[in-house]
Amino acid sequence: MSEAGAATVLIDTVAWVRVEQGRILCARSRGKDVFYIPGGKREGTETDLETLLREVEEELAVAVLPATTAHLGTYEAQAHGQPDGVVVRMSCYSGDYRGTPAASNEIEEIRWLTYGDRDLVAPVDQLLFDDLRDSGELM
């Protein structure tokens, strides 16, 4: 930490980007006021893929198929609801899945959102929404 200011705190996350028919799958945790791209923080020495598979299964009760995953990009922004200087880094992956997405564990609600719902998601997710709209994937 420098004398000029506080150090940045980084929250390192991995997220599953699933877009179908111009809508993106998002989840809202119990007690939270915004939706997030499904995923979460790695545990210990987990790889991105290991984190992705575990988190998506825990949150949505579906299995992402490892051989179909692809890195889409990494985004960083101020963490929603956290003090200034707390930044979320979200490594985003696409991938096919097996099962039917359903709210599980800490997830209270899942919803397929469009670009018009951008204000319902966390700041780091808004960056992804912008890119998906620019590429024509998100309605």
UniProtKB/TrEMBL annotation:
It comes from the Bacteria. SUPFAM superfamilies: Nudix. InterPro entries: NUDIX_hydrolase-like_dom_sf (IPR015797), NUDIX_hydrolase_dom (IPR000086). Pfam families: NUDIX (PF00293). Residues 1-134 form the Nudix hydrolase domain. Gene3D superfamilies: Nucleoside Triphosphate Pyrophosphohydrolase. This is DNA mismatch repair protein MutT. It comes from Streptomyces niveus (Streptomyces spheroides).
